[in-house]
From TrEMBL:
Protein name per its UniProtKB record: Uncharacterized protein
Matches recorded under SUPFAM superfamilies: Tricorn protease N-terminal domain
Organism whose genome encodes this protein: Hymenobacter crusticola
Signal peptide extent: 1-20
Sorted UniProt keywords: Signal
Amino acid sequence: MRHFSTVKVALAFLAASTFASCDNDDKEVSPATEAEKEYRFLRVLVADEQASTLTQITPATAAIASFNTKYPLANIYPTASGRFAAVLYQNQNLVEMFDTGLESHVDHVDVKGTPKWGAITADGGKPTHFKSKDTESLIFNDNEGTLSVGNDADVHTPGAKFRVINAGLLPHHGAMAQFNNGTYAVTTTKASGANPTSVKIINKAGTEVQPIKLETGAIHGNASDGTNAVFGCFTTTANTSGSVLVVTASGEQRLIPNPTDFGAFRLANVYYAEGAKKFIGFVATKGAYLIDLTTNKITPIYAGDDAFQCKPDYAGNNLHVLTLDGKLRVYDLATGTLKKQGSVIPSTSAADTYKPILEASEKFAYVAVPSLGEVYQIQLNDFSTVAKHKVTARPVRLALLGFESSAGHGD
């Protein structure tokens, strides 16, 4: 559990004029004060486009720590436990695990040592999609069509490797989902390197347990609630209209079509918001949409062609949409209503290869701005209160880890 809804945290003021940095305590933060601290055990990880550096920010104290990575441009994904991050070097066929040292005990968080690299690694060809459930981490290796699976318990085991699952898949830009019954939904393709157009279910040994039921157009993006897996796709191989493919743990498959005026687009990013129990689909050319598995309908949350980031918050209660004009919109996923909007960062060019990256907690939105070498920490109840954390020159990856709690052992 990454969010502690029962923990009551008193309001406090953060002196943000200096960082409590591990290697320089004179770095500026603007503005000078904040009305409320972030949760004590939440962490922000940042990777750089050019520097082999992983930066950890502790927002509650503005402390910054830097760690050497094997390569630049690492993709960062939090594990379901909240303690670890998978660091994927896609082009170098390598995965490492980073340990925040934070461990949840339901009503409080223990500190289990300092932040550090784990010992376990994976070396599948072009590790790309990452999923995590309970203590399990799962990676799809595009150049091999294999899966790599690891467990939190093995992170610090010397010489440990992710286990490889070979389900007889051809290499492709694949996706997968973990079900509560221990099986996986995996994409398949008819030709090596071609877009996936179907999904089957396999067990942990890679054996098929539920066959392909439907053929679609190109599939990209997926999420799961443990019972249902939702994949963004084109409806047919003509790729002229979009749908989502819903695959249940028992093997049923069905398509939910995009809105009638959607055009030749698919929802290439799919998220599951745990707190609201909702699926969201996003594509920059059309906006953010609610995917309702009960009514089998897809309806707009934000319809526009200027959104470039769309993320549920850490607990999955709200949806944050960032547009090219620098405006942030926050939606209540329980009702679908707009809660707040306002300008939070400078405008972004649609032509930029690396645009700002957004994540959000209950209290703050975090935006890595590559052009400025900063991470903006934006207070959500007052968009004008922003702390600017100086990190590396080109921060292009961002992830939240840890726990939305300030209750430590013995507090």
